[in-house]
Amino acid sequence: MKESQPRTIYLKDYRKPDFLIDATDLNFQLYEDGARVTSQLHIRRNPDADAFRDVLELDGVELQLERLLLDGRTLNPDEYQLDDETLRLERLPKQFVLTVVTWIKPQENTCLEGLYRSSSMFCTQCEAEGFRRITYYLDRPDVMSSFTTTIEAEKSRYPVLLSNGNPVASGESGDRHWVKWEDPFKKPCYLFALVAGDLEWVEDSFTTMSGREVQLRIYVEPQDLNKCSHAMDSLKRSMTWDEEVYGREYDLDIFNIVAVSDFNMGAMENKGLNIFNSSCVLANPETSTDSAFQRIEAIVAHEYFHNWSGNRVTCRDWFQLSLKEGFTVFRDAEFSADMHSRAVKRIEDVALLRTMQFAEDAGPMSHPVRPDSYMEISNFYTLTVYEKGSEVVRMLHTLLEPEKFREGSDLYFSRFDGQAVTTDDFVACMEEVSGQDFTQFKRWYSQSGTPVLTVTDHYDAETSEYRLDVKQSCPPTPGQQEKQPFQIPLAVGLLDGSGKDMPLTLKAGQGDASGADGDLTRNILVRESEQSFVFTGVTEKPTPSLLRSFSAPVRLNYPYDRNQLTFLMSFDSDGFNRWDAGQKLAVSVFNELINAELKGEQVDIDERYIDAMRQVLLDDKGDHAMLAKMVQVPGVSLLAEQAEVVHVDAILNARQRVHERIGASLSELLLSKYRQLHAQSGNALDSVSMGLRAYKNACLMLLAQGGAQESVALAKLQMQQAQTMTDEFGALAALVNGPDIEAAQSALADFLCKWKKDQLVMEQWFSVQAASERHGALDSIQALTAHELFSERNPNKVRSVIGTFGGQNWRHFHAADGSGYRFLREWIIKMDGLNPQIASRLLTPLTRWRKLEPQRSALMQKELQEIMAHPGLSRDAYEVVSKSLK
Ligand code: PHE
Ligand code: ZN
Question: Could you tell me which residue ranges the Aminopeptidase N-like N-terminal domain spans (predicted)?
Fold first, then answer.
């Protein structure tokens, strides 16, 4: 909480640290009213400092300093300077031991950074700058130290005491006991972790490729012991995959995971002691949906992969965050693609990128993958740093092709092992092994905004030449009016009249492309703002399949007509583009409806869209997970993102019409498909069964949204007979979004009664209502926040009600009278006093105010101004609100 305006930190001001901390010895004494932390820091001057200043400035926030000793001598208060955020010492020896004793209050810590309580345990979260809430320290990732940690606590309340590395000693006296941990790998303090609690665990082991045995444990509260096996299996699969695909082996003798229920993010890769939001690790088929299973597998893998991409090689400063996050997201995406359907994984990731990241990149918080300034680093754990960052690594992978990319990653891991480095260092390795020059490519790290590719084509029957004319541009973003052209790999295929891929021969002297003549997909390399590519030997006018597998994070404009799109939906050999053609078709139909309504005109829904849906439903051979994606109607968020000005009512009305029309024309087909899939789907957890359930529940949802009365009975029955949460929750969601309000109410009540003891299931119950156009009117949302199972101290609950309402409930959040906006503002202010990170994330929907039509836009802006005027606003919220109003 700050009265003065927060300071902006710039990448260009980076300086190497003046001091290094070789060793950090920590001692924690945990009590019911607080914790005493004694820290011994072995410090010396940094011989490589940029311009050595003999001033040691240690970071510290909300700490009570009890004692400070220099080489064993207690310092008097006039020998150091203390303010709200720093402890300053001058005229220091070249090398010394500083002992710092602080008293902290984990019980009162509601921001969930540093040491805090979750249920009956103590736990920590130090990334990005939480360690400074534990003790005074050089809280920056380029200061890497070895750590030993001794934890002492009451034995009966906290039988389990964990930290990073290996346990090396333990003992007890009276009702207290202690355990000492030693982490042999140097690490920045953001990777420090501690857990103390009355936990139980499941255990397994893994033998690494060099034959070392690693003990694996997942620690949970006793009631969750039956929810660990999926995460454990996922962990072992991740360990194998990283050995096989990246040659990376685990390096400690034990690997621990702890599930905690109060956590700001998904999970955290602390060295040897990953801490997870319980929703991202705990699962069993009775309580968790298939999507939860897949998400958990991906997050367990993500955190595990960080052991190399993040921990062994870490970030020099927080501007480099995507060095570890973009790369690790890319690694976990490839892992998931290898475990399940590659095309479906790609579809999911791109759908997220295009709805959420594109919106971020077009809004007031738009920033490059490597930001060049921030006020509060917590605000930069974004879709841009994570998802776009991953796309950038994916493009490098495309440009190098797998073998060279692996050479590059091997070089990166070996050259920088144990160091804190930059995205430039990463790219340099890729340049070195490939001989390619990535000077232009690196603009992907420094320029913000989503590039636009505008493609037109020309076919010359006489010469059998087919030409693609490509233009690129990038809209202005905050602080960046002008952009330089990007290097963009554009994957192209050409379909002949029968839907087959034509072999591609690129005319010499017309730009570069990966692959060889005769290949069916080529990545043409767009480098200029305008460029043409000519294919020869094209014997008939082709249908182009552009940006296959979404080869670059760009908006693509090509004037497809609807016949071409239905053709691609049926025939494109690229699964991603088959789905995307359906999306493009749907979006163009929606836009026609929306534009007509805005002009007060009436148009019919293009029969070709309904026909295309029918074709998908008639497909008996396709992969079910894929077909489930193909029948999905584009969400409001995607339509809003693609609109120039968002007219909420027009979008919602168009959606309503499309759903009703699908109901009217396709109900019978949806019903028979549903029955057929229901008979096949069962309760197994393999990808095929998951695909069947996904498709089945998608059909049920379409029936419900189309208003089909039959959907109600089917959903009730499915809910009663369900053997998996996927089926149970799928049915509940269909009822909540279906035509029968009473049936929905009673299903919600039954579900509550059955599951009220399970927090994670209840979070789903909260969010299905908060998202619902029918059940999520403001008074219902208010009732949910007053529910006995709701808690403003638990981020998952706040996200599932308030976050879902603001982010997904377009009808009621954007109520024309502004009541939804006002409600969100009140919650943001309330949360800002408790947990600024959560408050800041809840702000996102309001930051989009400029895109809304004038009336709503003004109402949203007013709420932002109210927040801005709130005294004592956190740095987190201040940054987002002030940038949004600028
Ligand atoms: N580093 C974590 C991850 O991506 C995310 C995280 C950031 C968690 C900050 C907590 C706090 O795996
Ligand atoms: Zn990560």
Answer: 109-191
